[in-house]
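dumping this here so i dont lose it
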């Protein structure tokens, strides 16, 4: 059995400036996006992307993920807390970013980027989809370092079960690390490989929807569910799991249509 290291939330300080781990993970995520984006543009030059376009789309994406992610957390998962503590809505350095809210924010940002730069929505999302999972992995590492979003208690012996002392003394799944491996590394390998060759328009985006929705749905069985505005829903599934269901369904429909050319 392991015990969470209880990291100091501040990674390092330079004079009066303190850099938090959570913010550092975002910086790593954005850096990986640019590095991988340039590699992707070089291996698929026919897609017509360059370094300047990557910088621009990243800016749109950053705004989308921060605004959407925070609003999703506030509206979908912890509205009661933020009604009582409205000043905390802006404290994103403490964590608390909803993937599904951030996802909707990014979709809106990509639509706006495409509209202003003469690219179709699916052209944009197909290109960026393989670049997203490493950022998700960095975000989940931030969750682990912050000691938030801990896993469910383990009823059997599990060598890597972890105690989060500020929660209780029960051994729990380190579900944040499961998500690093699943939604981060595994999903990246799938999408990076799939997008290496020409695919029908929308196919890569569809694979992202199916892959993320499925992996997140499974990971939720090991994670203590977020309270959500509805708590635990039908069939004992969490709010996040029910939000993943339409992702997978839409992804499957879009993938089928893309292969049919409709």
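and the seq i came up w/
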């Amino acid at each position: 059995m392991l015990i969470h290291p209880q990291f100091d939330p501040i990674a390092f300080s330079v004079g009066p400036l303190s850099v938090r781990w959570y913010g550092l993970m975002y910086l790593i995520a954005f850096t990986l996006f640019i590095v991988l984006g340039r590699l992707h543009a070089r291996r698929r030059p026919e897609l017509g992307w360059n370094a300047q376009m990557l910088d621009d789309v990243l800016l749109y994406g950053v705004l989308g993920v921060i605004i959407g992610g925070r609003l999703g957390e506030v509206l979908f998962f912890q509205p009661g807390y933020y009604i009582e503590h409205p000043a905390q809505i802006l404290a994103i350095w403490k964590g608390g970013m909803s993937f599904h809210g951030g996802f909707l924010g990014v979709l809106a940002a990509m639509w706006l980027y495409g509209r202003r730069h003469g690219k179709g929505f699916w052209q944009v999302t197909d290109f960026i989809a393989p670049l997203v999972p490493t950022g998700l992995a960095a975000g989940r590492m931030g969750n682990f370092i912050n000691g938030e979003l801990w896993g469910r208690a383990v009823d059997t012996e599990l060598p890597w079960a972890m105690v989060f002392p500020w929660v209780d003394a029960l051994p729990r799944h380190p579900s944040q690390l499961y998500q690093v491996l699943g939604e981060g590394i595994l999903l990246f390998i799938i999408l990076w490989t799939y997008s290496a060759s020409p695919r029908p328009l929308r196919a890569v985006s569809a694979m992202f929807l199916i892959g993320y929705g499925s992996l997140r749905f499974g990971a939720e069985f090991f994670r203590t569910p977020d309270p959500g505005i509805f708590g635990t829903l039908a069939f004992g599934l969490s709010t996040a799991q029910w939000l993943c269901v339409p992702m997978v369904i839409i992804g499957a429909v879009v993938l089928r249509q893309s292969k049919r050319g409709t």
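The longest strand covers residues 10-14.
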